[in-house]
Write a structure and sequence with these properties.
single chain; flat
Length: 154
């Protein structure tokens, strides 16, 4: 594959992720203002839903930046593996924040509706998030001393 083709596709995906991020920011403000005007939900639930959408938007932004940087920018002295470690760490951290917020929303919702029997859903989300963080730690531990400059063939 040619370098121009890889760069073009990476830029397309980067732009798509950035557009999705912007749309999610707009959606977050819409959810918040619409919820305030309709008084359908309480204020705390609206804030948590808006923050959850903004965190997902941040994850999309991080993904767009990571894809754009990974395939288009050749930085002197920086290993592709170091860049990937940093990008994956930021992305997984953002996803974990989104998962924890989602489980928090579910716990609040279920406690308000007296649906304690459904609490195993947010517990499963929290457990999955824990496994994701453990896997990230293992990944960082196993790739901690990789300093080779792009040993993979193009």
């Amino acid at each position: 594959m040619s370098k121009t083709y890889k760069t073009s596709i990476a830029l397309v995906f980067s732009v798509i992720f950035h557009i999705i991020s912007l749309l999610l920011i707009i959606l977050s403000f819409y959810i918040f203002t619409n919820g305030l005007l309709s008084k359908e939900h309480d204020f705390i639930t609206l804030i948590i839903k808006s923050i959850n959408t903004l965190v997902i938007s941040l994850a999309m932004y991080e993904l767009g930046v990571g894809v754009g940087k990974e395939y288009t920018v050749e930085e002197e002295g920086e290993s592709i593996f170091q860049n990937m470690r940093r990008t994956i760490t930021r992305f997984v951290g953002t996803v974990c924040i989104a998962l924890v917020l989602e489980s928090l929303i579910m716990i609040i919702k279920y406690s308000q509706l007296d649906l304690a029997g459904n609490l195993y859903y947010p517990v499963a989300i929290l457990t999955s998030c824990s496994f994701l963080l453990i896997a990230l730690g293992l990944f960082l531990k196993l790739t901690g001393n990789v300093t080779e400059r792009n040993p993979l063939p193009d």
